Amino acid sequence: RKNRGKKLDGYVIYATLEPCSPGARNHPKLSCSERIVNARFSKVYIGHIDPDPSVSGEGRDFLISNNIEIDYFDSDLVDIIYNENKKFFDDAEIRAHEYNPNPKLPKPTILTQELNNFDLKDLSEEAQQDLIDRLNLSFKITSSGFTKYLTQLGLVYKSDTIRPTGVGLLLLGRNPQLEFEQSRIKFTIEQSVGDAKIKDIEGPLLLMPGKVEDLLNLSFLPEINREKFHREEIVDISLKLLRELIINAIVHRDYTIKDKQVRVVASKEKVEIWSPGAPIISLEKFKSFNVPPISRNPKLAYIFFKTGLVEERGIGMKELKAFKDNNSLPDPTFRMENDYFIITVFRKIAKQVEITREMVISFIKEMGKISSGDYSKYFNVTPKTASRHLNKLVDDGTLDREGEKKGTKYFLKKKD
Q1: pLDDT at position 136, please?
Q2: What is the pLDDT of residues 340-362, one digit of tens each?
Q3: Is residue 230 in some structural domain?
């Protein structure tokens, strides 16, 4: 506005706060994003997305739709912007929850559009109560106050009938996969013995972190130090780190890609998190662990942050760098492959230890009696190998056995 007489074609503008979107100012005044387009800027650096969750990301998306390149400030500068403007951000959040009889409706997207085939009965009572509990709200699920609150957040849309929006169904739906098949999480976890464990997680996104945590706790059990004859656990991967990276994939993925789900692929050497869609932050910033807390889906990010399902802004990258540094591991890798953004985290590889006669005797002394399955699991060998080792110790007079087939137990042979 102050440089109308200057030719600004191709210039770059740095904005500490996301430029406001069309409709933010009363006619005939233009929004900041419209002025940037009209002035023919080529690129905009954004310091912080609009803190008002009802409009967050709309100015950015308008600029992108007009072929303006978007990039973001470094993460340390984003923290400064947030801290220096905290009161403004807090006030914007309060205003977002005040009743507006004539709200400005954004251009419908897959997440903001009203879903005509669903209504409030399609929302999960468990997920709604979880939202109420996590935000310490005083509403009851079926109250008009809670419905108004969901409307203000853009999770439901009120016309003749109250219906969930795309983001509302994803977060709170009984079975959001009916509309968003891509919202499953697919796990493939290699096992020490036997076939890989394959598991899909479904349901509302708000309840997925708990399910993810339960599966991780069952699937990534600590290794036992078998060089020492006591139960010293060796943690080869941080479950907190994996949880954060998987939740980040849920929140930041591209939901317009309908034929791809978040995938977690784990082997003995590494764990890969596959997230559909190219990240909105450059790969170079990921490689330098300099990723600002800015999301493709700001409403999802806002809900997950306010409910405490992510502990703090940007913690995933902090945890990733700390785990790598503290364990002297190779740098994690970041790459694109077939519309997937893939993060690879390397695990601490347990040192292979030769199983000695003394180690087996010590284990049986501790346990009393063991099966070949116990041996297989403890020493990380196949059942066939376990049976061969144990039977050899029976043949040389070290062990005795009782029972038959799968019920066979091995124990130290008593000396005459």
Answers
A1: 93
A2: 999 999 987 655 567 888 888 88
A3: yes
Residue 273's DSSP bridge partners are: 264, 343
Question: Would you list the DSSP string of 96-127?
Answer: HTS--SSPPPPPP-TTTSB-TT--GGGB-HHH
Q: How far apart are the first and last CA of the chain?
A: 101
Could you tell me if residue 105 is inside a domain?
A: no
Amino acid 353: pLDDT = 62
Q: Domain boundary at 346, 372, 388, which? A: 346
- Select from 278, 360, 139, 275 the least CA-distant residue to 152: 139
Residue 119: Cβ within 10 Å count: 13
Separation CA 63–CA 20 (nearest Å): 10
Total tally of structural domains belonging to the chain: 4
Q: Note the pLDDT of residue 106.
A: 53
Residue 110 located in a structural domain:
no
By the 8 A CB rule, do 203 and 211 touch?
yes
Position 153 scores a pLDDT of 86
> What range does the domain containing 141 cover?
120-178
Q: What stretches in the chain show pLDDT beneath 70? A: 95-107, 192-194, 221-236, 311-315, 349-353, 416
pLDDT given at position 229: 38
Give the residues across from 187 on adjacent strands.
Answer: 199, 264
Q: What pLDDT is recorded for position 322?
A: 85
pLDDT at 352: 55
Please tell me the total number of residues recorded for the chain in this structure: 416
Beta bridge partners of 69: 43
Q: How far is CA 74 from CA 157, 404, 410, in A?
A: 36, 65, 61
Strands 185-189 and 162-164: unpaired
